[in-house]
């Protein structure tokens, strides 16, 4: 009986075996699909795309110079403004003796544009700017108002003159990310690095402050030691005086220079 009906049982067994193999194979394929769905990157809803956004922001922030802050920004602030003197190749001829305004504007522009500055770049920058100023009717000495026009038209920066010359206002503008260009009666600054008696008119850049020491941090182009040069708050405020073309006709005296209006230039990108 076993042999007789074997031919009937055998196809049933074979069919059952194929079904089992087919199920095993199908089960394996389903398992691979699950693994694939785990390893592939799923579509993220809009609010989860933050990692890409953060990477992009980090790149932009890395390219922009950051101020040095030893403590709270309200206590200490120092922007990394590159420095070169108004006589970058140590050639203190008549042109470079009068180039403090140009040097101050160039340092400010290089900072906001994120461009490098070297002695040779400063030298070429001064020569180019002086030539442009001559072509546009500017005199050797440039007032704060004239410098503001130059910053706008030549350097494509935002600039304004303010007569609110106080420690608080200058600190406020620096905290806002601006730089301050200071027109000054140079001899009132008392900088020991100046060749005596010092420049009667001078211009420099305020780039930060140190509240603990009561000092403004500046880039003073009137000396090769001017990078990060510090002036006491009141020393710098007292020295602020703008150039006056009318008073300067026939030569400017210290007394006349001290009559110049008290203004500073606020510069931003």
How would you describe the overall organization of this protein?
The protein is of the alpha+beta class and 269 residues long. It has one domain: Cysteine proteinases (Cathepsin B, Chain A), CATH 3.90.70. It has 10 helices and 7 strands. The longest helix has 34 residues, at 6-39. It starts with 5 loop residues before the first helix and ends with a strand. The model is unreliable at 1-64 (pLDDT under 50).
List the helices and strands and how they pair.
Layout: H1 6-39, H2 50-63, E1 76-78, H3 94-97, H4 100-113, H5 119-135, H6 144-153, E2 158-162, H7 167-175, E3 179-184, E4 202-210, E5 215-219, E6 227-232, H8 233-239, H9 245-248, H10 254-257, E7 264-268
Antiparallel strand pairs: 1-4, 2-7, 3-4, 3-7, 4-5, 5-6
Précis, in short:
Mean pLDDT is 82; it is low at 1-64. This protein has helices at 6-39, 50-63, 94-97, 100-113, 119-135, 144-153, 167-175, 233-239, 245-248, 254-257, and strands spanning 76-78, 158-162, 179-184, 202-210, 215-219, 227-232, 264-268. The protein is built from ten helices and seven strands.
Helix content: 40-55%
- Characterize the main sheet: 7 strands, antiparallel
Given the C-alpha coordinates, what overall shape results? globular
**What class would the helix/strand composition place it in?**
alpha+beta
CATH architectural category: Alpha-Beta Complex
Secondary-structure element pattern, one letter each: HHEHHHHEHEEEEHHHE
């Amino acid at each position: 009986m076993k042999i007789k009906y074997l031919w009937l049982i055998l196809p049933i067994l074979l069919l059952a075996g194929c079904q089992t193999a087919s199920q095993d194979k199908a089960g394996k394929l389903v398992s691979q699909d699950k693994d694939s769905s785990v390893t592939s990157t799923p579509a993220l809803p809009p609010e989860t795309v933050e990692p890409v956004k953060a990477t992009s922001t980090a790149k932009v922030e890395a390219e922009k110079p950051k101020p040095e802050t030893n403590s709270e920004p309200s206590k200490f602030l120092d922007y990394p403004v590159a420095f070169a003197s108004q006589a970058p190749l140590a050639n203190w001829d008549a042109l470079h003796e009068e180039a403090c305004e140009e040097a101050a504007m160039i340092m400010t522009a290089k900072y906001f544009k994120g461009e490098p500055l070297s002695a040779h770049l400063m030298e070429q920058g001064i020569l180019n700017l002086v030539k442009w100023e001559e072509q546009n009717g500017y005199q050797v000495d440039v007032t704060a108002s004239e410098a503001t026009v130059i910053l706008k038209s030549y350097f494509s920066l935002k600039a304004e003159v303010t007569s609110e010359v106080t420690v608080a206002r200058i600190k406020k503008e620096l905290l806002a990310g601006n730089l301050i260009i200071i027109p000054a009666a140079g001899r009132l600054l008392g900088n020991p690095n100046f060749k005596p008696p010092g420049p009667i008119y001078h211009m420099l850049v305020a780039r930060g402050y140190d509240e603990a020491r009561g000092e403004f941090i500046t880039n003073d182009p009137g000396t090769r030691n001017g990078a990060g040069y510090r002036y006491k708050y009141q020393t710098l405020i007292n020295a602020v005086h703008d150039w006056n073309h009318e008073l300067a006709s026939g030569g400017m005296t210290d007394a006349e220079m001290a009559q110049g209006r008290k203004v500073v230039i606020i510069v931003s990108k």
